[in-house]
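DM from R.C. (forwarded with permission)

"hey, sorry to bug you on a friday — could you get me a structure for this? deadline for the figure draft is monday and I only need the backbone to look sensible"
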Amino acid sequence: MRVLVAEDDPVIALGLAERLRTLGHEPIGPVNDGEQAVATAKQSNPELYLFDIEMPNLDGLAAAAQLADEGLRRPVVVITGVDDPSLVERSIASGVSAYLTKPIDARELEAAIELAQLRQAEFEALEAEVGRAQQALEDRKLVERAKGLLMSALQLSEQDAFRRLQKTARERNLRLVEVASRIVEQQSLLEPKSKSPAPFR
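My reply, with the result:
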């Protein structure tokens, strides 16, 4: 895995890079501040961020948040030299996946990377599920709108309008929402029929 290392202490930074290599990962950097971390991430597209929290110009949490806002969200492991509960809370609020306190050994680092990957996968699965639910709601609204147009234009019952949608979808080998979308797009062709007077009987 390609891991971007951002740490302002050069000795610690080199040590982290070496531990990553020992674990079979490819370190990128190290860079020594958050602004460089953002710029390097855009150029090298790493798979995970290993950021020190306290860095000049832009701290590690702010850098990770900025990258996420710009569409470069990745699993994030943050490291710090102080065991501060408020930093832990801030890390969680920033979407950080794992948190380590210096000094860090290879075993702790490996566990943190695995945890970060797992939490990122869970987040992405949840995000996809919410996206699917939102899309399903939009699709249902479109079908209801198309059904209403058919009811009005062709003087159909709700049940008959829905059956017509289903039949058209089967005959044309389309999804129901695709048929609905085409009906809504051609709404202007249906409207004159709905406004014309009923014929004498």
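R.C.: lifesaver. The beta strands are 2-6, 26-31, 48-52, 76-80, 98-101.
me: no worries. Residues 49 and 134 are 30 Å apart (CA to CA).
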